[in-house]
Protein: Pentapeptide repeat-containing protein
Amino acid sequence: MSETNSQHIVNTAMTLKQRYAEGKRNFNGANLGNADLQGVDLKGSDFSYADLSEANLNSANLRGCDFSFANLSQANLQDADLRGALLFSTDLRQANLKGAKLEKADCDRTTHFPQKFDPAQVGLQIKDLPK
Structure:
């Protein structure tokens, strides 16, 4: 049985943390622009198509999260753990990725990175988008 959030779009950091604590992991389409999520543990969550632009995710545990088609532009991902994350067609323009752990995360050629960012240098794997 698949979980849906169709009737409960997450749009505040407090709601997100509460739903995660309840065992929910589907935050597809969440509207969390400018949210303060510093140091939060959200591993294994689905943030596909979510808006996390300008969010503070400094030191957050985002291992294995799905950020496909998400907007993380200008987000603070400094020291965040993104190992194993899905970054297909993710907008990371002007994001702070300093110290972010990105080993074994997957991206594709439509993923947008900050200028002068080298995905291969941090262990990102460029793949074709799954069908």
